[in-house]
Design a protein that fits this description.
117 residues
Length: 117
């Protein structure tokens, strides 16, 4: 006898609201919890990217005088969204900042790209 097939609604419901095992639930509880970093594993340690006192990435003039608005203290490295110091922590703002960075990256890379390569 053939196995009964689930309706498309049942399949979609399971995709959107899966039944999780105990181990999966425990992993989800741990994921995203605040965590303290040891001094030698700090966020962006040794990268040259400056952070503010709260650990957010500084950009623009806050990072270094004369920097474009979303560029970090590391030339050619840009930060947008929640990681950026002074951001409004909204998705729509991050999307707009991402669009800005595309133009800024083009401007940064243009003098470094040899035509025909």
């Amino acid at each position: 006898m053939a196995e009964p097939t689930n309706s498309i609604l049942d399949v979609r419901r399971e995709e959107r609201f899966p039944t999780l095992t105990h181990a999966e639930l425990e992993r989800l509880r741990r994921f995203g919890e605040p965590r303290a970093y040891a001094e030698d594993e700090a966020w962006l340690a040794g990268s040259g990217v400056m952070l503010d006192a709260k650990g957010f990435v500084t950009t623009g003039a806050e990072a270094e005088a004369g920097r474009p608005p979303l560029e970090t203290s590391l030339a050619g490295a840009f930060a947008i969204g929640d990681v950026r110091s002074g951001s409004v922590k909204r998705v729509a703002a991050a999307v707009g900042e991402g669009a800005q960075v595309v133009a800024a990256l083009h401007a940064y890379l243009a003098p470094r790209v040899t035509p025909g390569t």
